[in-house]
Amino acid sequence: MSMGTRCALLSAYTMRRVSADSHHSRCYRILLLLLYITLAVHSFLQAQPIENWTDDYIDQLAASWPANVIDNVPKWLRWSPKGGTRMTIVQIGDSHVQGDVAAVATRTYLTRAFKLSGGAIGFSFPFGMARSNDPRAIRSHSQSGWTPVMATKTKVEQPFGIAGAAIDAYSKPTPMHVGLRRDSPYSLPPSEVQVLFVPSQKAPALRLNGVFPDTIDKDKGTARFSFSTPPQSLTLSLDHVEGGLNTFRFLGFVLDNQASPLVFHAAGINGADVRTHLRNTMLPFELAVLNPQIIILSLGTNDAFNTQFDPVSFRADYTQLIRRIRFMCPKAFIVLATPNDHLYRNREPNTRVADAAETICNLAADEGCGVWDFYRIMGGEGSIYSWDSHGLTAADRLHFSPLGYRLQGTLLGVALYRMLTQEPK
Question: Can you tell me the distance from the alpha carbon of 56 to that of 41, in angstroms, rounded to the nearest whole number?
Fold first, then answer.
């Protein structure tokens, strides 16, 4: 009998005994569950040498991972591509999302699980123009006439894109050149590109690859372009309009292909905490433009990394963010993801993560949100050591390695698939 099987049997027996005894606390049950998950995760990670971790193996590992589910899911939330309705998912977060490796793995898993020809890439922001790391679908670099602005670098409320970043154009800048690439074999090249900008009736006329948009809505800040042949690069040019405003704030691209019934948008920015996204006055409006059925908020890492972390203030800020989003997207199901276990300044486990995760789980229950408790799923406090010993973390043991992000993203993909199909674990 494997260690994973022994752990499962021991946990099931113990949990039945604890549930039957009213004198045992909920905290004791949680500790037992974390003990089971920690042992089981260690057993799972030992199963295959790291050099043999193929895509198929990662899929199998994530599918058999213990307790990998989204909780608080309503029974009505189901989806199948055969139903004729497009599924749009948006994930918002911090550096774990900006890196895009996990998000690509999530979309890839869903594409394969639902047997689709590919998924639409969705939102992308040219972070290279801000001397930061681009998402995998974009190649960009600093260009004259464009000034990046980050919500992480200001304490003042401003309109940013859903990633918490924007690029200002002053007067008439040189055209913005951005290269495109397939972020995975399971993504479809864009046949439609949407340019997002801060709404203004005085916004200058836009051209993308030399053509004017098929449609433009200056009240929403969207310009939509169609291409018979998917472009290999994008060149965004601005023309002044008579009496127009000389300042234009660019918020991002949406790379779409209507041939796919699934689009998974990922929008993150390095260093973001909950207040970063609260400062973004455009976030709820940009989400309404994307019109998602599911919104995943992957926040809490940078909040808990702060030594002044206060669970009460954190909960109050997060509640405000959720309610702002829900006001503009009342039909969307919001899922809160807890942060990963990590080391504080590469020295010892950050004990504040447990407080952040507990706060998020309680908030999700009170606000009617789903919760993907990744902190628990990865093994709880100290599990970062096990992930590190298997080559799944970066050197700081705060972030993951590319392979670690592939595993994390695939785990989320499995949890989303189970949620959308209501498949029992």
Answer: 18
